[in-house]
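Same chain as my last thread, 138 residues:
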Amino acid sequence: MKKLPEGDNPKQVAEKMSQKFLKKGYILDFTLKSLENEIDRILKNETVKDTIESGKLESELTAYIGETLCRIFDANWKGEYYLENNGMNFYTSKIEKNGFEFGPSHFLSYYLVNGKESEGSFKDFLGSGLIDKLKFGN
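reply #2:
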């Protein structure tokens, strides 16, 4: 990934998000446990006022989920990440490991549009094969 401005660097955004949400009582410590427990809590409890706030939350979660998976599974960011234009992240921001690519924004976009009833929890999503694909590839 090329050198990006601080606002468009998913690693830096993930670090800032972790600190911001720690103050709100969430444990975002870049562990699998944080993905299994805290992402669903955030999606359930954090209310946003408008589409701008919703897009910012989605961008921050995209960065945190992607960076956490990169750290745990020694994966790499691929493509461009945009803090202020989350719609682009759906198409351009992915992590890659062993030939497998995952776009964190994909799950979040579908979840925010369709709801948990349709998409399931992030914990369920992790357990539905994502972890094995990151470990072993396609």
